[in-house]
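FORM 7B: Structural annotation worksheet

SECTION A. Query
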Amino acid sequence: MDPRQENLAESATAVLSTWCGVLALMLVVHAAIVFSALGNNVPVSQIVPVGVGILLLLVGATMGNLRPNHSFGVRTRWTLTSDQSWEKTNRLAAWLMCAMGLGTIASGLLNNMYMLLVVLLGGVAVLLPASLIYSYVVWKQDKTRHEQ
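SECTION B. Predicted structure
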């Protein structure tokens, strides 16, 4: 269904690693909850944030290598009509996502739920508008962009 199917195929490693990461996180969380329900002393409140942080790191590490597509990555009107905007915006989002991942892992290891809340909500509050605004700024400066 993606009009840029060939680019999505070139990004298969990033997409597949993200899917595998999500499945692995779900497996770990499920196992932790089951073991905890069976009466074992499992630190679920630490396992989940560390797992989410690792997933954020994985996604961030692969985002910078994505090719423009309509399925995965920062997809705005501007990133989809400018290869330069796509590349720069996804690299910025990748760095921000990795920073969120590191903060999430740290909050999980410290078992600090307040820090976790600040990192995740603050990270999303920075990541979304920064990506949106940056994609427009780069698009506006790109002389090779194409209108959709």
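SECTION C. Observations
The chain has a mean pLDDT of 91. The first helix runs from residue 5 to 10.

SECTION D. Sign-off
Analyst initials: ____
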